[in-house]
Amino acid sequence: MLIDFTMKNFKSFKDETTLSLETGERLSKFRESNTISVGKISLLKNLLIFGPNGSGKSNLLDGLKLMQTMVTQPPQTVNEKLIANNFKLDDKSWKKDVFFEVIFKRGVNIYKYSFAFNKTKITRETLAVLNKNNWKIYFSRENQKFDVKIANFSDVENRTNENRLFIFDAQLNNDKYAIDVFKWFSEDLIFVEDFTENDHISQMAEILKTPKLNNQFLKFLHFADFNINGLEVVEEPLSYFYFLDAIEKPKTRTKQVNRIYTKHKIYDNNGDVIGTKKFRLEEESRGTQKIFMIALAFLNAELNNNGKTILFDEFDDSLHLELSQAMVKIFNSQANQNQFIITTHELQLLDSDVRVDQIYLVQKDFQGKSNLISIFDFKDTKNTTRSGISYMKRYIQGRFGATPIIDSDEMLEALTQIQSGSGEIQDGEVKKGKTF
């Protein structure tokens, strides 16, 4: 499971920023349900990340997603550019490296893996393993100079290109620690996105072919108040384009994928059932597609040994408030043995049965830098134990920051001035001009 994720100089996060899933000190509230112990470490099952539009919530998850991609899908050629999406609103950050680091537990080991890079190369890379209370460096790298404790990697400098992570080559050579790291990124770190037909969806849909699981999923939909009367998974051909090289025209291939169909009752004018109608999942509403993705991710994690870290961006998008609240309750149930990290605008989730250390806020300052804040760090929340305290009310009051500053009258005036040709912006301020 994920313990900490740290990044620096990526998108709107200029300064070093850490998202931690370790529990706050001396907090006992919801310990039995909302936390999980991994060895001697107590971790949170669920984090809720709030913030205004444009504050950088998605960028935080994008950093971890890019880290996953770089580990599992390395460049194929030495001249392939890396996606170093640096902070761009100052005159120096574009020259500096992007930095990512994760600390996580897989199996019996706790790992700390990090790397720094720019558009052309990996400049630093380190893997450490926790030995009792100390980090033991397993391998480290500065540009193309390697310090490696692996016996069968004497020619490592010739094996790993400058734009490629060493961890990938190490797992190809059957190194046990590198395999652990690679499998954590490829199997245990799961990003749940909007529904699109892809291999990931096809793989998750496989579980609905099992009658017992299909029936279990259908019961879930029923109790979530979805009017779906049956589910069917059908293997169908999917055509896609591919390129042999950059010059030739794209060619077409076909592969078999699992497609999910929902079944609905058909009624006559008297309200009597006369049959059923099948719909492809992409024909359903976005809310229905979303709940399918969430529930499939949950079930897949349960069926694959749990211990997964599952992330949702814009979690509440297209979901009714009561359904969002119900899912947060499920994430924080004793039965759940996985982690769920969500970004959301739904302020009423602040007053769900969550602990103060489960709530993060993202805000952007006047220089365009995003800052991540845990409300556990506020003095008036850290030592609060009494119930009935509304975090939503205090957030709206601006007690924690990260609230949007919105002036609806000025917004309306700015839109209506388009007709009159009045008003211009100079240095970020609106200057009213003549009306013609």
TrEMBL record:
The protein, known as: ATPase AAA-type core domain-containing protein
GO MF: ATP binding; ATP hydrolysis activity
Record domain ATPase AAA-type core: where: 49-351
InterPro entries per record: ATPase_AAA_core, P-loop_NTPase
Species annotation: Companilactobacillus farciminis
Stored SUPFAM superfamilies: P-loop containing nucleoside triphosphate hydrolases
